[in-house]
Amino acid sequence: KIFLCHTGAQKQLVEEVYRLLRIGGREAFFDVHDILVGETLDDAIYNGILSSSHAVLFLSPQFFQKRWPKEELRQIMELWRKGDITVIPIRIGLTHEELEEKSKEFSRISSISVDEEGDNAFRAQTIVTEVEKILSRSS
Length: 139
Prior knowledge:
By secondary structure, this protein is of the alpha/beta class. It contains 6 helices and 5 strands. The protein has helices at 11-23, 31-34, 41-50, 67-81, 96-102, 120-138; strands spanning 2-5, 28-29, 54-59, 86-92, 112-114.
């Protein structure tokens, strides 16, 4: 399973990535589709992270200003340090250097860059192509 970690600002892009992953037969956790009415957000997200082998991080300047994504990132990086999850950072409107300023751990992880603006279908296809390369190596 692939956990999709994002902010509301990337919701449309993430929706398209989710759609493409599902078409490709991949299971993904996307809050809009996977948190059920009556579930607590904390538990649903934590269980989604724990049940995932990979986490795609949609990292933007807005990402680091929001509480939920930062908490998800904390949980994901804790699992990453133990070797329990593979992280796939997607830089949206951030250089690698700007990302390193936000978190030094990212200096050790290669990342994918996509434009902040543009056609969601094209950007999503670019992301999914790279994610599929990573997934095919770990199968």
